User: Fold this.
Amino acid sequence: MKSTILNTASSYLLPILLLFSIFILLRGHYHPGGGFVGGLIASIAFVLHSFTHGTDDTLKLLRIHPGVLIPVGLGLAVLSMFAPVLIGDPVMTGLWFDEPFPVIGLIGSALFFDIGVYIVVVGVVLTILFTISQYSE
Amino acid sequence: MTLSTYIDYVILPILGVALLLVLVRIFKGPTIVDRVIALDLLITIGVGVITVFSISTQKSTFIDVAMILALIAFLGTIAFSYYLEKRGRK
Amino acid sequence: MLFAVLAGFIVSILYIPFGRFLKGKLAGLAALLPISLFAYFVSFIPAVSDGQRVTFHQPWVPSLGINFDFHLDGLSLLFSLLITGIGSLVFLYAAPYLRGHRYLDRFYAYLSLFMAAMLGVVLADNVLLLFIFWELTSISSFFLIGFNNDNAASRKSSLIALGVTGGGGFLLMAGLVLMGHLSGSYSIQAMVETNEYLKNHVLYGLILLLVFAGAFTKSAQFPFHFWLPGAMKAPTPISAYLHSATMVKAGVYLLARLYPVLGGTDYWTYPLIIIGGITMLYSAFHSIFRTDLKGILAYSTISALGILVFLIGIGTPQSLLAASVFILVHALYKASLFLITGVIDHETGTRDITQLAGLRKVLFPLAIAGLLAALSSAGLPFTFGFIGKDLVYEATLHTDGVMPIILTALAVVTNIFLLYAGLLAGLKPFTGQLPDRYQRIHLPSLLMWAPPLLLALLGIAFGAFPAIADASLLNPAASAMINKPIDTPLKIWHGFNLVLLLSGLTLALGAFLYLMRKPSASGLDWIERFNNLSPKHVISQLTHYVRHFAIRYTRTLHNGLLRVYLLRIVVFATLLLAFRLFAGGNIYLLPGYLTPLSVYEIAVVCILIAAIYLTVTSSSRLTVVVATSVIGYGMCLLFVFYSAPDLAMTQFTIDTLTVVLFVLVLFRLPPFLNFANRGARIRDWVVAATFGAIITLIGIQVLNQSFDDAVSKFYGDNAYILAKGKNVVNVILVDFRGMDTLFEIVVLSIAAIGVFSLLKLKLKASEKE
Amino acid sequence: MIDNTLIFPVIVHLFTAIVQLFFWRKTVAQRIVSITGSLIAMLLATRLFTAVWNDGIRTMQAAGWDAPFGITFVADVFSSTMVLLTSFSGLAVSIYSATGVARGRMLYGYFPIFHFLLMGLNGAFLSGDIFNLYVWFEVIIIASFVLMTLGGRKAQIEGAVKYMAMNILASTFFLTGIGILYGITGTLNMADLSLKIAALENRKLVDLTASFFIIGFGIKSAVFPLYFWLPSSYHTPPSAVAAVFGGLLTKVGIYALFRVFTLIFIPDDFLATLLVILAIFTILTGTFGAVIKNNIRRVFSYLIVCHIGFMLGGLGMYSEIALTGALLYLFHDIMVKTNIFLIAGLIRKLRGTMNMDKLGGLYAEYPLLSLVMALVLFSLVGVPPLSGFWPKIYLFEAGFMDGQYALVAAIIVGSFATLYVIAKLWAKVFWKDQPDAPDGETPADEFKPLNPFRKSLLVVPIVFLAAITLYIGLAAENVAAVAKHIAHEMKDISPYIEAVLGPNVSP
Amino acid sequence: MVKQFLMNLLLAFTWVALTGVLSYSNFLFGFAVGFLLLWLMNRNESDHRYFTRVPKIIGFFLYFLYEMIRANIQVAYDVITPKFFMKPGIVKYPMNAKSDFEINLLSTVISLTPGTLILDVSEDRKVLYIHVMYLRDKDQFIQQIKDGFERRLLEIIR
Amino acid sequence: MELLLVILLGVLYAAGIFMLLRRSMVKLLIGLILLGNGANLMIFLAGGITRGKPPVIDDAAKLFTDIYADPIPQALILTAIVISFGLQAFAIVLLKRVYVLINSDDLDDLNTPEEEDI
Amino acid sequence: MIDILIGTLCTIGAVAILIAAIGILRMPDFYLRLSVTVKAATLGGGLLLLSAAFYFPEEVSVTTKAVAIIFFLTLTAPVAAHLIGRTAYFIGTEKWKGTIRDDLAGMYDKETHQLGSGDNEGDNISHPSS
Ligand code: NA
Ligand code: NA
Assistant:
């Protein structure tokens, strides 16, 4: 879709939305938000970009195919789930750093799990949407 | 009268009525673009509703929801434009 | 004894790797198995005739009470000897008969399997073990009957045979389980002990029904007899084996075996007499119209089976003794006649009785065998057949009331026809003028003519010297049936009495018939005019109707219309839920607790309902999408009002993405067509509205039920302290119930891969699977 | 007993799938990883089963939150047996797929999805939490959607639409039921639910809730009149996929029915009667369908429906004997149904078709293979002493005990029909000569051109499963002991509850 | 000019840190104080633009607000009264704005004021097509925009 | 309010069912979405609703000081929403494929005759 | 005091939104509806958010968010309006009969949807495209 105005708008909306998605991701443990919504917003940012610039351009921007994010995210989530097993705890036991970090608060395996979720969601949504839009084009 | 009751009994009902009015437009159409903009307006009103609701309940948490709505509501409109434009060109 | 039974199985398995070495000249070696088994069982004769019983026990499935429990008594021994004895001859006979056949190894494998299964049937003491072997005989005979598998008729016959015997088998199984269930044990010997309980049980009739169903189908009783003539499509050695001594006798064996458990009541006697009587007369009559040698033998076999059932039905000691004698008699002459037929078929290429004559000139030993077998079957004095027939008449005459007259008359008529049939099969091909085309026939190998001759000679031998068999075999067999010792020596001569008169009458009329009536195709044609009334035809019609019903049923139910399927599911659900809702107990019509209403919430609910209405009624796809997203946003607002910000966020983002998805996909789809007629729409509305109303009512019931919120409290109390998060929903998602979340992203991942491959993958034409 | 490793059969498939995703489009690596993963899964499943069989129920509390607060995983004999059987089926199909599945499909994620599916199955069997069970069900159905449509031709897509519509509907019922269940008990842990539901005074609510589960699981396990998706779709996907579907997918519905209706809801008279009636109709419907179809896989599809009825009937009768019979049938059915679809696939490889009229001559050409196939097919029929025979004894006995003569009659009819169609299939496919193709083009023989190794990849799984089937038949005592044990645990649920909630709570 | 802006921000943050009150009003106050200080300290004529632009931005913002409220009232009146006073039309408006950013900003501003709405920008980015609600005279309207929003906006940006 | 919501619940289910019974695949999908919303609402209602008390602990506190909405139904619905999104996305794409194959979204056309089986 | 300010802001905002709602209902054609709603709603929403920012003064994040939302609404609403507006024009959405002028008529290339600047053409009088 060709529109100068949308073109310009999307180029500054993309970083804003991405920043926002990371914000939503990190604060999920304390406030509404988290990996899902964060991931969804990040994908929406790219989708918006692809509406104006075309899917191919967005893929170029991403450098990797979003599908790659799926195993990466899954792997991260699974590992964070499995880390406790290595020290003899049940699956998914939360492991935590003792000191809180600014903004994010305490950092623990749950956060890595949430990041995994985020990555998977981005990978999934973009894979689905880009596949469809390439198919229609 | 506290602010909270004022919002509950004046502001929110006004917004509720606004929502219903917009809904009538969604029903009436007549064209799809009318419905799309009505939908867009509905969401914008939703942002307002959520905002004042958070004032009324004194839970700033809800503002987050309003923020999400405001951030991505227009994507729907853009998608419809994208679709209609493509279809029109066919 | 276990080994004796299993030997056949083991051998048949050994045929898989080694069979190819036994295809040629060595094929006859296969007979080593039955011969040695025969010898093994012969060794039991002294003990068994002394009234001893040999038992064997080896656990198998003790929890079901199914073990390798074998029990050798007179009855079992008689059958075992027949199975292995005639088996030996058939094994030997088959080697030259099927020489060079590409599947000779498979043939012997099936035959060994079959023999083993038969041995298992007659030796098992446990009804379920018996049943296992019983079914194995059905299956192995399926393979034997369909041995010429490239022949369509052969395949069809084997299917019919399996269908009938297998179907009966399942009923039998139910009957046997019922017996075992009621008597508390599957052991026949144990059941004999509790037979009074069984006979007086309410379900006794059902047991009999089921057991009879098994026995009648297996033993080809009217109206299930039709599979047996068809089974003649098997190579002749198989026919000889299956129909003289083994397969079909299994049903008879079962009745005999269960006589002490179930027999002796009116419910037992009359069905057996009636069915046996009909069978023997019906098929004896039919046999005289056949022109195919095997056809004649088939029908006479059925008739003989009818006689046996009839005798077991009468259930007097005489009749049971008669039955055991007749079993042996029939086995000997019928096997002989079959084997003779096999040679004739093998040498002349035909079995048509109207084409065959004078073969004594080229196949002399067989002519002797034929003559002897025919005489035995005719029951001429000094043949074993004579003794058999005598005993039959004796048995029928010794029943009560008016029965003797009817039954004896039945027996006489049957025997006349049978006599005729026996003469036709044993005598007719060898008498008269030898046609030119058969001049060059040579006597086949010893293995092919000796077995029938031997069998026929045995028939005469037993007849002349009945003492060989009576005390050693036949009395023990009969005594096993009535469960008390019998010692009735068989006599060749009973003196002048009614029985002798009847025998004479039978002989005379039978011989008269043989001399007067020449078999002809026209006779066959005549009888076939009644085909429409035959059980075979009736059952095949029935099958036809069942099939048609099945087609209509399946097509109606599975009509390819998804909406109809869904409608049925919904109607089922509605009915079930409605029943549960309205049956008994009071229904709440209002929620137990109501949070106060506010105007804007009403507005949101109104919007939702209106949007739902628009979604349902709109005829434009895009409007539907818009309306659906309004529903999503409405839900989102509800989630906000009722304290679920995370939900609201997720619902909203996902809703937006769904719109995007729809929009991308709807591209180029045509507008909705309103297919449904008014009636269908109204019906659907009614169904949907009813379902919705029920859901509402259920919701109200649920709202009236409070619950223990310990889990929810635990989450609230420990979210921060233990799990270090303040957004409890998020803590639940990533910690308390993190497993759900992990696998939910797996769902998403799979969906993405699915979408990717659904749209990208285009298989090459070669890649079908 | 707490055992944090009981989840391994799930995890190993998850890892396998993720590793394969990293090897996207590297089909050789995927095949190797798949077979290795399946082998490991089988070892782990065997280990789990032995442990549970010897030492009793094992539990794992995810993240260390005690039940009922966290998600509990429970391995009792029932679930560990299911996991074990799944691992057998999984290994067989995994090996078979190495040659049996088109390379194009492998390039687009066949193997990872397959392992996700197995993971979902294992998860469903091991889960002790009703909502978690829902999640597993969703993993299973989405994976099955993908497998069904992968590389989809028209018929496949058509089948998939119906399959999908009805399965999503089923999930909705399931989910609604969970919602209500939570609303009346406040818990999701199945052991806890068992206690709370038993204590609930409003039985009407309990019955209503149970109805949602009946409908949801009823659809998934293809019970009359909810079965329509199955014959609409099971004849369409690649045979390896159909094998997993036929062997395991409907069985997970049956598993859930058995689990939920022995642990949480105990059927009342009405429900028991309803189940029996549904079972009868299911059997008859499957029977009618199977006898008239001409395509091997369509026949098998209806046979699945028919045999679901057997198991459902066992549940309806609800005696220990009946449950034993149904379970025994379930075990047998998983092995055999997987195998018959593999066989159908192999036949297709050999002859290029699955239409019985166009097939023939296999007996002459492949005697040994035919023998193995015959063994499997006749096991399906329940020719004694093969595996399908034993359960029927229990079912008959239970039927007589319970006075369910109509059900016994239906089972007889179903068994007879199975016998008939299998014999017909045998006569047409194996005995009959290969008919000449009418239009002169003989379908391609895809088997002969393969090298011996790849041929063996197709044959070995069939033999492997046939061997297990044979074991179930000949060593029925051992298998029956397992089934009996499970049936006993179903009637006496206190060990399960104690294992999950600790010894101080008693029902 | 960027340097001064950053300096100003730094001063504002320092103020917040010093007072220890983390709130917007305090930050704005700190920014204002910083701006004042920078302006007082600035003796470099060539770098004067920062100090003229900030008031201009504020001025533009107020103008925009004024326009918006005025036009909103006008439209509101039209909406709630039964009779329509509108004379709508689509007008071609030749822009002075050149860059994407300028065009974007201009169109945002025009669109947000009631009564006008950007429908599209021509392919060659020379003209805007504006939907106008109260179109009395085309040229007068164009002139009004040119003198109003576009001039003020370009002054700030360029 | 519960009464209103429970009626809405019924309406959602009824509309979902009605849409399932149409011939158009698009409507079928919409029906499934409506039913999904219905199921979510059922969970939401069944768990009990609380207005304006999100289950988020205040920044300053370590424990809830006030009543709060039951977080479990929310977590369940969230999971269910995300899962349905996955299924819906796939279903929508399947719709596309169906359309490409049969050039319509009429579900009654989805019947390849048995003769064409492989 | 602050409550009164907030109440006032809220009221103005709500009324603005109500006017937008009435506007979208009453306006005679699509372009007018679009024109009315975009700004009225943005204004209304902005005012409501502003009042929230005043209401939670101690929570910096709320103020930030409120400002961010206003910023976002201001940024996105015109863009969305422009897109849907031009799309409506493509698909030939009818204009009100009182429309007095249409410079866009005939400027779009039918095939590519490229929009010319029309420098060479004279002013053309509006005619509703239908
Ligand atoms: Na969250
Ligand atoms: Na304006």
Q: What stands out?
A: The pocket of sodium ion (ligand 1) is lined by residues A 28, 33-34; C 646, 729-730, 733 (CB under 6 Å).
